[in-house]
Amino acid sequence: MLSRLLPALISLCASHGGLASNPEVPKSNNDTFVTALYYTEWSFYNKHYPVDIPLSHITNIYYAFAKIDSKSEGTYWGDEKVALEEIIPLVHEDSNSSFGVRYDMLCSKDHAKTSSEAEPMVNSTGLIGQLLQMKQLKKGLKVSLAIGGENTNHVFEGATSSQRKTERFCQNLVDTMRKHGFDGIDIDWEFPDLRSSSNLNKLIKALKETLSVAEKENGMLPNTYLLSLALPLDVSSLKNYEFETLRNYVTYFNLMGYDSTGPWSDRADYHSNLYSPETYSASSVNNTVQYLLDKIDKKQLILGMPSYGRSFKGMGVGLPFKGCANIADIQQEQNQCIVNYHNLPPQDYIEVHNFTAGSSYAYNTKGLGIVFYDNPQAARQKANYVKELGLAGGFWWDSYGDDFRAKNRSLLYNFVDELGGLYMLKMSDPTDDFYPDEMDGATASSYATQCFYTDIRVFLVIVLSWVFILVFIS
Ligand SMILES: *[C@@H]1O[C@H](CO)[C@@H](O)[C@H](O)[C@H]1NC(C)=O
Ligand SMILES: *[C@@H]1O[C@H](CO)[C@@H](O)[C@H](O)[C@H]1NC(C)=O
Ligand SMILES: *[C@@H]1O[C@H](CO)[C@@H](O)[C@H](O)[C@H]1NC(C)=O
Ligand SMILES: *[C@@H]1O[C@H](CO)[C@@H](O)[C@H](O)[C@H]1NC(C)=O
Ligand SMILES: *[C@@H]1O[C@H](CO)[C@@H](O)[C@H](O)[C@H]1NC(C)=O
Ligand SMILES: *[C@@H]1O[C@H](CO)[C@@H](O)[C@H](O)[C@H]1NC(C)=O
Prior knowledge:
Pfam family, one: Glyco_hydro_18
Family: Belongs to the glycosyl hydrolase 18 family.
Bound molecules: 2-acetamido-2-deoxy-beta-D-glucopyranose
Protein name: chitinase
GO molecular function, one term: chitin binding
Enzyme class: hydrolase
Strand content: 15-25%
């Protein structure tokens, strides 16, 4: 009798995740949303690592970027050492750990003592190794491999210039994805023109077929691997996409709802405005979203938002400018006049959110410049927009720009809060034993306490079971 009871008992003890999860958590995926971040390989050099991303608040990560070798139709890493080899600590001194994930990892270390499946967390091998460790902690987290990026029309065109090349490229790409344990592929073809648009159709169709074969080989359900496609904000560029074909294969369309203005523009103006202000620019996120909703399902559309501003040396909204603003103590990306959100607003600048425009700016009181970006109010306005229109969710370019330490300032935290909190996020794996309420205000001690009580509960179950067995045997 004992020998039959024991395995059951052991599995009961081992699966203590079930005990820890809150049974009242609504698990319906109906009205839930995706929140995604692009993590860029080069943010390693800013000491921003995947582990700095608050795992509790996101459902998807895009790793940017794999590169295309158009001669062999293969893929390679922009910085292979950082992607695959560099030893990256899970806890590092350059970051304040006042938020989710790091404590989650520490907690999981404790769990490893009682849970048979958890492995102790050690330093990561490469950024991709660290992303996979994060997937161990939140099984529902989806990490896609993004390929392409800025000005990649020609290289994509080359890799898809014949059916044979397209198939080889898809096979190489899917092999890379599987080899490194990614959950999908994000195509950042920027941007197809009239000539290359049929190549894009063929690529997406062939990629979907290759992914389906991989799913069968892995014994997965169809459509388990994600296939997403980045889209430009500019409606005239969107005319080159054949959505009636693409919509049949693409899981998510990632609308890059930013960069409508920059150093190339005639005037200083919003670059990520939700609505068209009465300035010269007629471009708006709303216009493009409305255009797309005629062509794709609303649950296929993820609204992209910037975690950076674009600066102009000029006097104000809709006025001429000359180069980037002079902003003391802040490095702006060369010639791009890009300022990371965590540095905004700059000193001596006044922040203004314009509800009519659905975006924000900060201007220098002495007329030295103006920066356009989304502030927390803009993030909240966009969360409501996503909710009202029933879109799939929101994403940001990129994770380094936001400020996850100051929760009331973080774009991601404000967005999720306005959606209605962590329960509004899509939960891809119901066995994820996350504790949203505790995680939300997680401090080191509150999270450690949570771990402690979980372990106590497991301990009690074990003791009571043994008492039960002993009584039963005697
Ligand atoms: C989700 O929404 C659809 C349409 O509104 C409805 O038919 C379906 O029952 C809902 N499913 C759940 C699990 O709530
Ligand atoms: C992790 O990396 C840190 C810093 O590089 C090092 O001090 C520590 O010994 C490493 N820990 C393990 C378990 O390898
Ligand atoms: C961490 O937080 C403390 C206190 O809030 C602050 O003094 C310190 O500068 C922060 N460290 C970093 C690296 O941000
Ligand atoms: C906000 O935008 C609207 C529309 O462009 C404009 O009329 C209004 O003056 C702006 N307000 C501020 C404070 O910039
Ligand atoms: C958003 O676009 C739709 C369709 O073009 C339009 O009817 C609506 O007024 C726009 N919303 C705002 C606030 O401009
Ligand atoms: C944001 O939070 C910090 C620390 O909790 C607080 O000092 C600050 O006043 C808050 N800012 C706003 C605008 O609420």
